[in-house]
Amino acid sequence: MTQGGKDPGHGPELWRLLGQLLETLNGQRTELLAGRRPESLHDFRVALRRTRALLGAFGHLLPTAEGAHLRKEFRWLGAQTGPARDLEVFQLRLAADLTDLAAATRSDLQPLLELLDARHRAADFQLQQVLESRRCQQLLDHWQTFLAAEPPAGAAAVPDRESAKELASRRIRKLYVRSLRQGKGLDVGSPAEAFHRLRITCKKLRYLLESLRPIPPRKPFEKLIQTLKGLQEVLGADHDCAFQAAALEELARNLPAGQATVATLLATGRLLERLERRRLATRELFLVRFALHTGVKNRSRIERLFPDKPSSSHRVPR
Questions:
Q1: Quick one: 185 and 298 in the same domain?
Q2: How many Cβ atoms from other residues are within 10 Å of residue 168's Cβ?
Q3: The pTM is what?
Q4: Does 179 share its domain with 154?
């Protein structure tokens, strides 16, 4: 049950899906404010992305002003919770890397690690402030009240998951075609910003597909998600490498006077070299995963699962 007493298992399919996601948001927010399990921030952000993916696909079923307001506020919440998650992933990755380094190198890096830990604590504090804020509480309360009310006529006309999938077909084709366009021509030397744009598109597509997956599962649908997940994993790894390299360089520049020793800067350089090797390997793997994403089998799945309408401007290119 959600906080307002509405059972997300009843009502139109779209309302049921959004109600379940709201339940997750409220539950993980409570965990985070209580000190959080390690995975709570990740789970909160996944539920947030899926909510935004559904609003992107079905927002036209809501009153215009309401849909615009909700998309803006959920986008704000996503942006506010991102820095803490990036630093969390960075610290986990760095802890794994440090086990492969000599004890002397780990000692040389100690000033930088202490500064990184301070940044992470500050980001966690900022996260707590956001989650406790009046703006966050008002957003979730308003969303709860909206979902507990009688659905708009358009949403009420989506009684089951198959209906939701059919209605979202145009959005899914649009995102898939956009991903083909954005990824075309990318190679190991392409700028990080280009990979990031493709990553955002693939995330929107994946979370929308996962929200609408058939029950029971259908093999073509699951293969489509599996292929997309593989591509998104390497795009996420590329994003992490870019963020972590920039963060290391920024931390090294801002070490307190007397701590930016030659030994510490040389050890930081070795970490940056390791990140660059990882980034290049990730981009080589991207070429393989993107070829699967754009291949004949995957295009055929999109065409069969989300058939094109003659008037559509988002036909899947052959």
A1: yes
A2: 23
A3: 0.84
A4: no
